[in-house]
Amino acid sequence: MSKPAYHIIGNWKMNGLKADLQTIEAIAGGGQEFSGVICGLCLPATLLSAALLKPGTSDSFWIGGQDCHQEKSGAYTGNISAEMLTDLGCNTVIVGHSERRAYHGETSEVVGEKAKAAQSQGLNVIVCVGETLEERKAGKAAEIVNNQLSTALAAGLSTTGLVIAYEPVWAIGTGETASLDDIKEMHRTIRAILSDYSDANGENVPIQYGGSVKPGNAKDILGIENVNGALVGGASLKAEDFLGIIEAAAALSS
Ligand code: PGA
Known about the structure:
single chain; 254 residues; alpha/beta; eight-stranded parallel barrel; 10 helices; globular; binds 2-phosphoglycolic acid
């Protein structure tokens, strides 16, 4: 059975100024050289327009937002809608990142609604799931991830253009990564949920790992069964580091 292409997507979070557009250009230009790997960047909204004008940020390189509102428009000060992202020329959005869940109180129901809204605008959607350290220590990691994913899918998500990112909260931005065995186990659990959800397409949904992925650990992590990419925070801010991760994916897929 064929497996999904590697999806290596950077999440710049609340980082990046106009001066950093050159980094975006270096990443997008460099990423084009690796066939068989889908690469992209989810940027602060303030950089999206300018990023979309850079050479290399075409359809094969994903440019997207880090969140979208579940409604199409309205009195939601500070928010952006999926339609606004599509209108700009973006093809991707992240929903349900643990920082959105923790600091903005987003529930898995809301995450499902956001993902559904994004799909209705034709965006690729990266749905993030992951347990906290307390939840893992309590032996509840699989249960939490199962709940988060099943609840989001219950919004009626299509498997087309859907990407799941497993990001253990305690591994994000900490330099810690989950053990290769823990990643393998959780990705197998996620694959089983996706296959139950869609017999025909569950196998084709890419499952990314996220949490302190760097050039130095990318090969080991991406080599695990059912790991079909990475959602990369810190290491996506430097072209050299991010391209190193893309290169590791390209080497594994050739
Ligand atoms: P990190 O972030 O690579 O800096 O750990 C990953 C993420 O939050 O998506």
